[in-house]
Amino acid sequence: MADELSASQARRVALYAQGFGAKRPSGRVDRRHLRKVLDHIGLIQIDSVNVLVRSQELPLFARLGPHPRTLIADATAAGELFEYWVHEACHVPVEQRPLYRWAMEGHPRWTSMRRFAAERQDLIGSVLERLRDEGPLVASDLQMRNRPKGQWWDWDDGKHALEHLFRTGEVAASRRPNDFARVYDLAERVIPAAVLDAPTPSEADAKKELLVLAAKYHGVGTAADLADYHRLVHTRALLAELVEEGRLVAASVEGWTQPAYMHPDAHLPRWVRARALLSPFDPVVWFRDRAERLFGFHYRIEIYVPRPERVYGYYVLPFLLGDELVARVDLKADRSTGRLLVKGAFGQPGIDESYVGAELLAELDLMAGWLGLDAGVHVSDHGDLAPALLAATAS
What we know:
This protein is α+β, with helices and mostly antiparallel strands. The protein is 38% helix and 18% strand. It is built from 15 helices and 14 strands. It has a five-stranded mixed β-sheet with strand order 10-11-12-13-14. Strand 3 (81-85) and strand 4 (89-93) form a beta hairpin.
């Protein structure tokens, strides 16, 4: 593939790398399909907001369509996934765990937490002992009520100790399904022994491997794109080494002001025929600068914006059709009435609104069925795409 790409080619390379080059499975979906998705995206960001569905379920739906909603939990219980702070809190294939040991040993993000642990070694030791003796615990099991105001989200000392141990890798965590709380246990009881015993790469080698993986998942990206995937810093020299070693290919993309890098195995398909609603934390859009550069799509999540100041709504998902982001919808699962509510629908300039409305409705119907919202999709009249979406519901 040429190392000079048009904007359209870059979009197709990126979407193919992210798993949108293949049709969704037509039969039973199982853990093999989860593994294929992870081979394309590498990690799944976790978020607790549940107005529609927890965000970590949406990247799988975008690529697989309807699937068993226990796939992630089952893979975690089987030792195939582990949770760690990577892009943010993420589910990650467990074989990649050695690549984060440098972070466990001393990530600069957690300096104040390490200071707390150094000052409270007795507390850290007692929490480890309780885990060893009692097995898995949530923070409330420790029954520590002292909460220093304004620090670490008002965590009490027990939660602070558990989170320190989680970051150092001595403790692993999973999620309790009913309230999404972290359940902590000793890493040796959660992470497969073969992974714990695997050699530890140097920090530089680990970061280089993560940059290569980011290039694989992105297909093509700037230095900032690749560093952002696993939230790395000081990567310029490492990228230069990787190009010299042939593990990355220097490239340029039409309209990009920064140099680009491609994975040597990046593929340019003739077309991408995707149709997907994307989580705000899907890798296709989570780095907003990249989304604007690739798709001309200005996207900001407005969860934390006061309601009067929101432009599009509370929980807005971009809609991918073909190789373009063509619309966005503000969605809510009204579980009490069994309805998928479209609180707003907004199209990009120049789209065929009738066509986009019909395709968007088909994807929304699929989502409603997957979520068990048997009363179906209900569309409000808010947004410039709402009339076309309403017309599609009436046809």
